[in-house]
């Protein structure tokens, strides 16, 4: 039997906010780490650059989603 609080909409939204927040934080950490690695090794490999650009773009997109969800939550309450 599933407890009522697990079925509530508020609980599901908290899980969504938490997951997106964690993904955003990890992507930003990876972006910073990769940027520092590329700077220290003077990497010019096109595949490596493409991979790191993809991580950077993903972190920006998830950051925008996180801010949007935060604003939605603020204006909702």
Secondary-structure element order, as H and E?
Answer: HHH
Summed up, the helix count is 3
What is the overall silhouette?
A: elongated
**Helix/strand structural class:** mainly alpha
Report helical residue fraction.
Answer: over 70%
Gyration radius, to the nearest Å?
17 Å
Number of strands: 0
> How confident overall, as mean pLDDT?
83
Sequence stretches where pLDDT stays below 50 over 5 or more residues: none
The largest sheet is: none
Q: Report strand %.
A: under 5%
Amino-to-carboxy terminus distance = 31 Å
Q: Gist?
A:
This protein is mostly helical. The protein has helices spanning 4-7, 9-41, 46-76. The two termini are 31 Å apart.
How does this model look, in words?
This protein has 77 residues and is mainly alpha-helical. It has a domain at 44-77. It contains three helices and no strands. It has helices at 4-7, 9-41, 46-76. Helix 2 packs antiparallel against helix 3 (46-76). The longest helix is centred in the first third of the chain and has 33 residues, at 9-41. The protein is elongated and about 55 Å long. It starts with a helix and ends with a helix.
